[in-house]
Amino acid sequence: MTTNNQNNIVHMELKNGTVIIKLRPDLAPLAAERIRVLAEKGFYDGTPFHRVIEGFMAQGGDPSGTGTKGSDLPDLPAEFTKEESFRRGMIGMARTMDPNSANSQFFIMFADAPHLNGQYTIVGEVTQGMELVDQIKRGGGANGMVNDPDRIIKMSVVAE
């Protein structure tokens, strides 16, 4: 695990511009390290925002676009926090019903969602470009799955 926290800024290039994300290893060191490692490997490049629910969140990080896959790395233990709340622009780690199943998928909040507090891991927050996140194509139906979804063009780590 990286102990130097100088590389906690991630640039996520979308079709309309670049979103700047600050990872929060102070809240979730394992999850922040996972996002950093996968971004450095190019894992997220070209991956879709497969599940996008208006007024809630945009979920990505699954190369298959089904919401059922992750990276080849082992799943992470839950790092739930009480210090922060799920609010607009926060980034959480997606998981199955098993709290210890986060891997590569993440979601970006369109709006506050206090019902997620203490149930999911906060891994970062959008510091610039939330208006670009707001432009991500929405899905339909109750599950928010997107046909022909918008994709992350490139995700890279930069020094603070």
From TrEMBL:
Catalysis: reaction(s)? [protein]-peptidylproline (omega=180) = [protein]-peptidylproline (omega=0)
Show the CDD domains listed in the entry: cyclophilin (cd00317)
Alphabetical keyword list: Isomerase, Rotamase
* Lineage: superkingdom: Bacteria
A Pfam family it matches: Pro_isomerase
The segment(s) forming the PPIase cyclophilin-type domain are: 6-160
Quote the SUPFAM superfamilies the UniProt record gives. Answer: Cyclophilin-like
The protein's matches in InterPro entries, at most eight in alphabetical order, are given as:
Cyclophilin-like_dom_sf, Cyclophilin-type_PPIase, Cyclophilin-type_PPIase_CS, Cyclophilin-type_PPIase_dom, Cyclophilin_A-like
MF terms from GO for this chain are: peptidyl-prolyl cis-trans isomerase activity
Entry EC number(s): 5.2.1.8
Q: Any idea what job this protein has?
A: PPIases accelerate the folding of proteins. It catalyzes the cis-trans isomerization of proline imidic peptide bonds in oligopeptides.
Q: Which family does it belong to?
A: Belongs to the cyclophilin-type PPIase family.
Its recorded name reads: Peptidyl-prolyl cis-trans isomerase
- Organism this protein belongs to: Commensalibacter oyaizuii
